Amino acid sequence: MSYEEFKEFKLVYEKDDPFIPHFIIDEDNDFYLEPLVYSQLQGFKERHKDQYQTIIDALIARVKRNHKVYFISDYESYFEPKDGYIYLEIQDITDPLKIFVEDKSRGSDYGD
Predict the structure, then answer these.
(1) Which of 46, 51, 102, 111 is 20 to 30 A from 5 via CA?
(2) Of 64, 22, 2, 11, whose CA–CA distance to 93 is shortest?
(3) What is the pLDDT of residues 5-53, one digit of tens each?
């Protein structure tokens, strides 16, 4: 997969986790990006084209501030912890920017 937003960073796929792209900005800053998080970013790109670069810039700034970040799709879903990394969801980047996507999913109307 091509990650145009992050093409200036070194991309590594690790042997123990070959489906999670690991982007290395420099020797002090790097991040992992779960595929579902990238899909969420693409959703923001579709709905908020004029603010998409702002989201990417904020994401990279957050990595540079925290140095080691693992972007996960959901805190409540299973993920393999990595020592020294903080875990963020895409909303941790977009909410402070006041850029929202309304979650219209809901449970079935055909409950018990």
Answers:
(1) 102
(2) 64
(3) 999 999 999 998 899 999 999 999 999 999 999 999 999 999 999 999 9
Long-range contacts at 43-46 (CB < 8 A, ≥ 24 apart): 43/101, 44/90, 44/94, 44/99, 44/101
Q: How far apart are CA 93 and CA 54, in angstroms?
A: 10
**Sequence-distant (≥ 6) Cβ neighbours of residue 63 within 8 angstroms:** 25, 29, 30, 31, 69
Please name every residue paired with 30 in a beta bridge, in sequence order, or none if there are none: 24, 68
Which one-letter amino acid corresponds to residue 81?
Answer: P
Q: At 57, which amino acid appears? A: D
